[in-house]
Amino acid sequence: MLRNFTKHLLLCLLIVSVTATAWAQTSEITGIVKDETGAPLIGASIVLLNTKTNEKKGIMVNPDGKFQITGLSAGVPYNISASFIGYTTKTIENYLLKAGEQATLLIQLNPAASSLTDVVVVGYGSQKKKDVTTAIASIKASDLENQPINNAAEAMVGKMAGVQVSQGSGTPGGALSIKVRGVGTITAGSNPLYVIDGVPISNDNINTINTNDIASIEVLKDASSAAIYGSRGSNGVVLITTKQGKTGVAAISVNSYTGWQSLAHKIDMMDAYQYAQMTLESRNNTYADAMDAINRRNAATGLPRINYNINDSNAQRLVNSGNNTSAVIPTEILPYLNGQQGLTNTDWQDEIFRTAKIQNHSISAAGGSETMKYYASLEYFDQDGIILNSGFKRYSGRLNLDGKKGIFRYGVNITPSLIKEKRLNANGAYNAGNANGLNTGGIVASALHYSPLWPVYNADGSYSFAQNSWSPGQVTTLPNGSTITGNGETQAWNPVALAMLQKDDVGSNRLTGSTFVEAEIIKDLKYKIQLGVDIFSSAEDTFRPSIIPLSNTAGNPLSDAQASSRTIRETNWLLEHTLNYTKTFGDHNLSALLGWSNQKDDLSGNYAVATRGFISDQIEYLSAGLVTNGTSTRQQWSLASGIARVQYSYKSKYLFTGSVRADGSSRFGSNNKWGYFPSASVGWRLSEEEFLKDAKAISDLKIRASLGQTGNFNIPNYLAQGAMTNYGYIFGGGTPGVVNGAAPFAQPNDDLSWEKTTQLNVGFDAAFFNNKLTLSVDAYNSNTTDLLLNVPVPLTTGFSTELKNIGKVNNRGIDINLGTQQQFGAVKWTASANFSKNKNKVVELGPGNADIISTGSVANAYFLTRVGEPIGSYYLPVVLGVFANQAEVNAYPHYLDTQGNYDLNTSKPGDFKFKDVDGDGVIDLTKDREIVGNYLPKFTYGFATSAEYKGIDLNVSMQGVYGNKILNLSRRYFANKEGNMNNMISSLDRWVSESNPGSGQDVRANRVAKGSNGTTSTWHVEDGSYLRIRNIALGYTFPTDLIKKLSLSKVRLYVSMQNPFTFTKYTGYNPEVTNRSAATTNGEDYGVYPTAKTTSIGLNITL
């Protein structure tokens, strides 16, 4: 018995001993977090990082500000971080716990200088935000993390005051438009300069960048900040900085999302039965108008009146009207007019648009030691277009290295990318080819145009081309021997066939990289040499089968197949030397920069097209046909620059920055090879003054002012030199022919120089209530002088115009940014808003300040650039309404006939009533025009908010513009009531009769658009204001305790919607639309690839 008792006692002691030993292997930490007054900081976060395993533990403090974390490994160093919104994060590094220790910590957090301590990238360096004296907008990687973003420009939408980012087209992988503080040029390029990791790039499409690699994006908005880039800074500068390595164990991140895209907004079009009724009305009105005109002529010449009836047969109509085919009623509409059911009723938008997949998968690793840090990533992005047979794929990688050895620091940044695109010609008119010979331009316009009476496919499965002929009865023979008989509708092409049968494949490669070595020559003085390169190459192959013609001549076979091949290669080199001196003398801080830069760009390209000789549509290569045309090009430009900058501060209270850049460019005349671009800015941090020390509500307050000058060298090469180009000369004689020759393509101008922008900026930055509320305001006045304009020259020079520096444009406005960050217990909430107002005005133009009139994509669509007005205003006839009856027609001024007499029969009830602008009693639409709007908005705005609660996060962002107008040229065709193509559903509100006037604002149906109803006018101008919800993302971050067993430090799952809602009065697909990029003809909608709305599910994993 004693033996058994002893055995059990020893067993119990052993168990106790083992338990005690196991307990002794772990430790715990308790503590309290307080603010600067000693009050507990409720909701503060505590994160412990095991520096050996990289395992993290996190916890919120309780309502007393206390926390307790148990189960910690003994003998292991921990990094302990405490954070709270509006306070500086405090980190205790390498805290070593003893076995069984119960450590107690008292952590005090002080109010943060908030974003004022953030580092902002500026040209050729960086500054603390509190020391910045210029206007710079910035977003960080943390602003991009919680939502799927396809490209760098998209990350900027609605986030920065004074920076308008527009998605004018939904083309997969398409570039977005970026405008910084309005438009300051008329003929030169208006895109900003892009600088990636210190290397200015010449190809401004930044869609090759993996957004997960971006550490920050800064936009230099005012001339003082951009002057360091001299002749390229007038349109603003976008600095993109990529992520670098970090000391410690490699942090591996995986980011992946998959989504589904669909058409964001569908345009309501007529169905087949509504279309048939409108077509009947249009032909009847055309017949009646034609017969009235014939009978008026007969009465004037003594011929007998021709009696007609609106119910006349087609044969009788042709006889009576003198073979006017526009008066013929297409026989195919008759079953629809009779209400027969089960007939073809094709919705062509449903046929060309689809639900399309989008996906992005990337992996990155960051780590290193004190002597070498690295960041590496790989990415695959795949976006199918919402239009059939279109898409975009991107493969990219990155390697960033940063090392130290002795007095040297060195680094390499290299980014290869491969892009594959399936393009199609979505934009433009329904009947216009493109530069590659592909058919009829706009697939989108064709879908809106094409009659709903026709099917996509014939009974045998081939594509239907029922609308490929114009005149009724016209017979056209196809290459396969079959024929098409004309139906009287406007010639158009099956949009599904256009999308599926034509090929436009593009492959492009890009290598962007830089390497540098920096040495500390003596204390505080560093020399740096940097070599950068941007190599881009592209190959495009197109094919159009013979079944889809470029043009159609009555009775002739359709055109042969066509193939083309285009290659482009561009190499841009940069070599820079800089000396940087930084010194602190007591309360004085001084930084000085001297540098020299050389940059050279070399562009070459080849193009060849084969238009005859193809034996089969199945062989899609250039070599399968006869090459009938070919061109090649080679262009170079170079830039040599000197750079100097001084930054000074006294007690971090009084701030000054001054810089100058001298640029010598190959693009400009021999008398103006060099330009000089100075700037100066000052700042005063009032919050550091004694008289504001006791203002508890004010955390920081700084006022600043800047003045600087920048240039714009975005013009074609060789204009100043009058370089030669090839021309064909026709010689007569016995065997006339075209002989190749050469001639100057422009009048030489040795005085040609940069456009120059001088900008004054004043503003302030403020933070309140322990930096929980921030406010930044800037006001600016910008004058661009020496505008590059074509002015007339004597024809004896051999030219009609010459490019000269003449003219002036003014932009003035205000930018406001407001932000807040709050914490309510376990809820963290942030919000930011921005507002920008810009007013653009032309101050001076060419000789005599003559107006510049530019033509849009449709006849009579004019844009006017006039002194005192914004650039590129719409200059159109003004529609006052619709004539309700004949009495109104008779009482109003009319057009003149060919003899200069009133033609009282030009207009009829149901036609547009145009304003007699010049008041001469005559309607002359070449003169009766006025400025009726502009594409530039009165103001833009953006808003973003996020909330976090116990692992759940919600992020919402929105953006909008107000006061801009859109010239909706699509309405010229798809709301014209001509009965030769489908129309928008709004055409149901048309004028039908005096007793049925419809809305009173829309004209009658008429095949030949009487009364100038088809003239581009104010009826085609719409309000382009909108508010778009850009992103809604809901995510959940799994608790650390749950995922640590998988050796993961963070797992976040989210769902996201992009562009889910748009609030606008605009009737087109997209209120951000524009078919043109030129400053003088912007704001058109003439059929553009629509934007998509996207629903995605994503996963972020950190190891």
TrEMBL record:
Any matching Pfam family: Plug
Superkingdom of the source species: Bacteria
Gene3D superfamilies, per the entry: Carboxypeptidase-like, regulatory domain, TonB-dependent receptor, beta-barrel domain, TonB-dependent receptor, plug domain
Keyword Ribonucleoprotein: no
Predominant localisation class: membrane
Subcellular location: Cell outer membrane
Residue span(s) of domain TonB-dependent receptor plug: 128-237
Example of a GO cellular component annotation carried by this entry: cell outer membrane
InterPro entries according to UniProt: Beta-barrel_TonB_sf (IPR036942), CarboxyPept-like_regulatory (IPR008969), Plug_dom (IPR012910), Plug_dom_sf (IPR037066), TonB-dep_OMP_SusC/RagA (IPR023996), TonB-dep_OMP_SusC/RagA_CS (IPR023997), TonB-dep_rcpt-like (IPR039426)
Keywords: Cell outer membrane, Membrane, Receptor, Signal, Transmembrane, Transmembrane beta strand, Transport
Signal peptide extent: 1-24
Membrane topology: Multi-pass membrane protein
PROSITE patterns the UniProt entry points to: TONB_DEPENDENT_REC_3 (PS52016)
Family classification: Belongs to the TonB-dependent receptor family.
NCBIfam families referenced in this protein's UniProt entry, alphabetically: OMP_RagA_SusC, SusC_RagA_signa
Protein name: TonB-dependent receptor
Lineage: Bacteria, Pseudomonadati, Bacteroidota, Sphingobacteriia, Sphingobacteriales
